[in-house]
Structures are given as C-alpha cells and as structure tokens.
From TrEMBL:
Keywords: Membrane, Transmembrane, Transmembrane helix
Transmembrane segments: 7-24, 155-173
Pfam families documented for this protein: DUF1523 (PF07509)
Name recorded for this polypeptide: DUF1523 domain-containing protein
Length: 213
C-alpha cells in the first residue's frame, strides 16, 4: 500500500511539473526570419494544445494558423547552457483568459513580427508551450521585445516569484492543516476511542457477569 501511495504521488508530481512547464512563460533569444499563415485541420488531440480561435472567428476543427518563423539561440537546462542556432516556429494566437496571459492582440504581434522579418535584429520572444514536430504543435508567442544581441540572457523573474509563492503557500497550508488536525481531528478521534473503550469495558463486564454464573 505504501508503494502505491508513492507511485501515485510521483505521477501527480510529474503531471503537475509538465503542466507548469507547458503553461509558465519562457523566453527565447531569436531573429525573426518571416511570417506565414496556414489553414490546417486539427485533430481532437491537437486541439488540446491550441487555444480559442481569435475573437470574431468561427470555432471549428479548421484553424488558420499564424506562424512566426525564427532562428533562435539553442539553449539547454533553463538557458544555463548555450549552443549554436536552430530554427524555431511559433504560433501566434489569442489566449483569452486561459492561460492567464490575456493576449488579445495577435494581429498587432503579427505586424511587429512582419516589421522585424529578415532584419538582423535580435529579439526576446516570450512564449509558452512546446514544439512537437510530429504533431504540428507550436509554442504560442506572447510578446516580442528587441534586445542587444544573441548574448542577451533573459531572467525568468515571473517564474522565480511564482515558485517562491508556491513554496510559501505550500508550507502555509501544511501548517494550517497540522493545526486543524491537532485542534479538531485528534481530540475528536480521542473522544471516539474513549467512548469505544468505555462501551467495550461495559460489554466485557456484562459478559464476565454471565460467565461467573
């Protein structure tokens, strides 16, 4: 039973980690090489990774994908190690209120990317999501900001504060739960055990009285 609990906790931890890695903002240093639009029919599984259609458009399995083509600095381990350059394609779609980026300006972002296309201007692209080539899944670009060059290293301030808040909140809830157990659950269990012992003692005395006869 203990092993089942451990496996269950590990599975929950992995699911939570993947969810946070997908939805939390990431920053890539890249050059915009072009933009493109593509009409694509999305499968039911693919639609999980896409948001609502742009406001004013009809919902359906056919999606007009706005894509931003780039060449980005290749990084590993949260940007601590850097390699050469590789191509990366981002999608550009509104998010609405979930994930809570409140992005409603995909047309403006497309205009910004179009103005940067083909230039040697390095930019920091804030995005979330994953690139899965075999499923045609693209990370969603949230914003584009010009930077000094490929050596620029964006610092994930939001993620740092988010995890700090998560850790503080975890210990706060844990302390509250322990106080609740200590003040409410434990006294209730002790009272139930005392009552059970008293009833058991009375029954035992009654049985002993019959045995003595």
């Amino acid at each position: 039973m203990r092993n089942v609990r451990r496996i269950f906790r590990v599975v929950l931890f992995v699911i939570a980690g993947l969810y946070l890695h997908y939805t939390l903002p990431q920053h890539d240093v890249a050059k915009v090489t072009g933009i493109s639009d593509r009409l694509e029919r999305l499968s039911s599984f693919q639609q999980i990774f896409y948001n609502q259609v742009d406001l004013g458009s009809a919902e359906g399995d056919m999606r007009d994908l706005r894509l931003i083509n780039t060449v980005k600095v290749d990084t590993w381990f949260l940007g601590l190690w850097r390699g050469g350059e590789r191509v990366m394609v981002y999608r550009n779609e509104d998010t609405g209120v979930y994930p809570p980026y409140f992005k409603f300006d995909s047309s403006d972002l497309e205009a910004e990317a179009s103005a940067l296309a083909g230039k040697e201007q390095w930019v920091s692209i804030t995005h979330y999501g994953w690139r899965m080539r075999f499923l045609s899944i693209y990370p969603n670009a949230i914003s584009i900001k010009p930077v000094s060059g490929p050596e620029y290293r964006p610092f994930p301030w939001f993620n740092l504060f988010f995890f700090a808040f998560l850790i503080v909140g975890f210990f706060f809830v844990r302390a509250m739960w322990r106080q609740f157990v200590e003040r409410t659950v434990d006294p209730t269990m002790d009272a139930l055990e005392d009552g059970y012992d008293m009833r058991k003692s009375r029954v035992q005395k009654w049985l002993d009285s019959w045995r003595s006869k």
